[in-house]
């Protein structure tokens, strides 16, 4: 059961990261979504969404590895 919860915990921020990549790609190809009124704002929003999703996934992995003592101590 805990593996399913961990998978869902990583899946949802992963979807946000994919949406951020799509927004940035659409901004590069001059496709404006109705929510955004300028390409720069769309690109910047996509970048923020992507970085937040990536940071959550990275933080989750570091937390899990520290809990299981798989990260080496700093010398």
What's the SSE blueprint?
Layout: H1 2-28, H2 39-67
Provide mean pLDDT, rounded.
Answer: 91
Q: What is the CA-atom radius of gyration, in angstroms?
A: 16 Å
- Count of DSSP H/I helices: 2
The coarse overall form would be elongated
> How big a fraction of the residues is strand?
under 5%
Let me know the number of strands. Answer: 0
- Output the helix-strand order: HH
Amino- and carboxy-terminal Cα gap: 37 Å
What structural category arises from helix and sheet content? mainly alpha
What share of the residues lie within helices? over 70%
Question: In oligomeric terms, what are we looking at?
Answer: single chain
Major sheet = none
Number of domains: 1
| Low-pLDDT segments | none
Describe this entry's structure for a reader.
The protein has 75 residues and is mainly alpha-helical. The protein has one domain. It is 75% helix and 0% strand. It is built from two helices and no strands. It has helices at 2-28, 39-67. Helix 1 packs antiparallel against helix 2. The longest helix is centred in the last third of the chain and has 29 residues, at 39-67. The relative contact order is 0.16.
Quick structural gist:
This protein has 75 residues and is an all-alpha fold.
Features:
75 residues, mainly alpha, 0% strand, DUF2627 domain-containing protein, Uncharacterised_YqzF, transmembrane, transmembrane helix, membrane
């Amino acid at each position: 059961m805990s593996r399913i919860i961990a998978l869902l915990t990583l899946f949802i921020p992963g979807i946000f990261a994919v949406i951020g990549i799509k927004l940035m790609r659409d901004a590069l190809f001059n496709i404006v979504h109705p929510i955004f009124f300028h390409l720069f704002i769309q690109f910047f929003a996509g970048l923020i969404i992507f970085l937040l999703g990536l940071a959550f996934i990275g933080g989750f992995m570091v937390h899990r590895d520290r809990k299981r003592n798989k990260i080496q101590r700093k010398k």
